[in-house]
Amino acid sequence: MAAYAKTGGKKLMRAVITVIGKDMVGILARVSAICAENDVNISDVTQSVLQDLFTMIMLVDISKCKIPLSELSDKLTAAGQGMNLTIHVMHEDIFNAMHKI
Amino acid sequence: MTHGPQRPVIVQYRKELRFIMINTHDILETINMIDNENLDVRTITMGISLFDCIDPDINRACDKIYDKICRYAGKLVETGESISKDYGIPIINKRVSVTPIAMVAAACPDKDPVRFAKALDRAAKTIGINFIGGYSSLVHKGFAPGDYALIKSIPEALSQTEYVCSSVNIGSTKAGINMDAVEKMGNVICETSKLTADRNCIGAAKLVVFCNAPEDNPFMAGAFHGAGEPDCVINVGVSGPGVVRAAIAKAGDCDITEVANIIKKTAFKVTRMGQLVAREASRRLCVPFGIVDLSLAPTPAVGDSVAHILEEMGLESCGAHGTTACLALLNDAVKKGGVMASSHVGGLSGAFIPVTEDAGMINAARCGALTLNKLEAMTAVCSVGLDMIPVPGDTPPEIISAIIADEAAIGMVNSKTTAVRLIPAIGKKAGDELNFGGLLGGGPVVPVNRFSPLKFIKRGGRIPAPIQSLKN
């Protein structure tokens, strides 16, 4: 129900970064570099490569992020286009809302 | 033996787990819904009361209206866009609905209400929204001061403005049907179409005639901010026909009970997304959250069609025998799934069947599978009514009035909202094409029954409220 998840009174701000596209050298490096530049901490990563299709899902902590989430999203999307990848940045609340009762 | 001391630890652990474990499948499913199945939030609509803008001096009233809309909704578009970016959900439209202008215009007798329409239009342009609804009048039981003038001015108002939408409520289960208003609206629709004939009769596409109009509907063209609503409110309309169709397709050859279950589950997810956006918009704009409207609203885009859901259920074409049954199931399952996902559900909530805005309906109408008669039957079980249907330009006003009366009767007897949004395509005959472009789409002109209802329409008066209105 609550749009903002709270634990112990502290607002938890996490986003999910998904990267989908053709596998190539340096995808993880590029994405994590952009995260590091903006003080976004990577909490969890899963990735798989199925017949050349690269899928990576990152759970990141954006509570100390230097720029607004929308700007981070623009940066990563732009970086993705340069490498022919589809990158989505979405607040984790959307998944909690849609898939949990 | 007690588990007392351990419980807080478990609760804490479970809380943490809730945020750590987002399933990979769920994430990819959501992204697929957005990228490939046209999942979106169709509209964030801010309802604004104009009661405090009423003034006997029409210039002052118009200034107050313009100022209030700009003050309240100035950041609506910007906020909508930032929510869209943060959550990665497309939010297609940002709109405003206002108190029915007839109530405001009543204080300025002998003045031309079109000036209010122009004030609304200017405000809409300034704040960057794509439609403003509420050039409306509620006359289901009779005409109050302001109503006559407003209804008379609708053709001019819609032809001289770009963003203004108009609606008139001519009947309700409680009050019956105001046949004098029904007669007037036949003429008003024809006149509106004529005045905008040079722009594909777009005026008529922005005019809805209702029975049982909801006061909190966020969808255009019928949105207005009812008299019982608060000063300002955020209502959200979700969408997602493509997602429902894809989910049914994935299930393959299951029985119809399973189809209903799949629709419920999908509607739940879609509505939860709408609820999240509504709460967030309400928080960021510091405006109370009103309702989420659980509608399946199609667009002309491929893969965003309600007709294709019906076809996925097993019909060769929308309009075939069986369409009404499929639509009844769809409409009901959408509500059942959605109602648990939102704290407040309202508006129209159900499946829309606008012909020109739905790729599947357009095809069905083109090949003759979908006729006006079948559409009328479908409106008995869907959430609105005869929506966005081009009819021949020479259709007499009394036939349009009679179509409105039929539709209103269905709404009145079944205690549901019904509406009529017909577009007399000036200069075109049945089978020709009328194109608006954009969200309004385009489609073939549908033939109407030409036998005359003139004497019935000219009788005037009021159809008494049905026995089912006496619930007290």
Summarize the topology.
The complex is a heterodimer of chains A (101) and B (472).
Chain A lengths: L5 E2 L2 E2 L2 E9 L4 H11 L3 E10 L2 E9 L7 H14 L2 E7 L1 H7 L2
Antiparallel strand pairs in A: 1-2, 3-5, 3-6, 4-5
Chain B lengths: L6 H14 L3 H13 L4 E8 L9 H16 L2 H12 L3 E8 L2 H5 L8 H14 L3 E8 L8 H14 L3 E9 L3 E3 H17 L6 H4 L1 E5 L20 E7 L2 H11 L4 H30 L3 E5 L12 H7 L10 H17 L19 H8 L5 H7 L7 E7 L4 H17 L4 E8 L7 E3 L6 E3 L9 H5 L3 E2 L9
Parallel strand pairs in B: 1-2, 2-3, 3-4, 4-6, 7-8, 9-10
Antiparallel strand pairs in B: 1-7, 4-5, 5-13, 6-10, 11-12
Helix pairs in contact in B: 3-6, 4-11, 6-7, 7-8, 8-16, 10-11, 10-12, 11-13
Walk me through the structure.
The complex is a heterodimer of chains A (101) and B (472). Chain A is α+β, with helices and mostly antiparallel strands and 101 residues long. Chain A has one domain: ACT domain (Alpha-Beta Plaits, 2-Layer Sandwich). Helix content of chain A is 32%, strand content 39%. Chain A contains three helices and six strands; from the N terminus they run E-E-E-H-E-E-H-E-H. A four-stranded antiparallel β-sheet of chain A has the order 4-5-3-6, with helices on both faces. In chain A, strands 1-2 form a two-stranded antiparallel ribbon. In chain A, strand 1 and strand 2 form a beta hairpin. Chain A starts with 5 loop residues before the first strand and ends with a helix. With 472 residues, chain B is of the alpha/beta class. Chain B folds into two domains: 167 residues, Anaerobic Ribonucleotide-triphosphate Reductase Large Chain (Alpha-Beta Barrel); 234 residues, Anaerobic Ribonucleotide-triphosphate Reductase Large Chain (Alpha-Beta Barrel), CATH 3.20.70.20. Helices cover 45% and strands 16% of the residues of chain B. Chain B contains 17 helices and 13 strands. In chain B, the strands form two sheets. In chain B, strands 1, 2, 3, 4, 5, 6, 7, 8, 9, 10 and 13 form an eleven-stranded mixed β-sheet that branches. In chain B, strands 11-12 form a two-stranded antiparallel sheet. In chain B, helix 6 crosses helix 7, helix 8 packs across helix 16 and helix 10 packs parallel to helix 12. The N terminus of chain B is likely disordered.
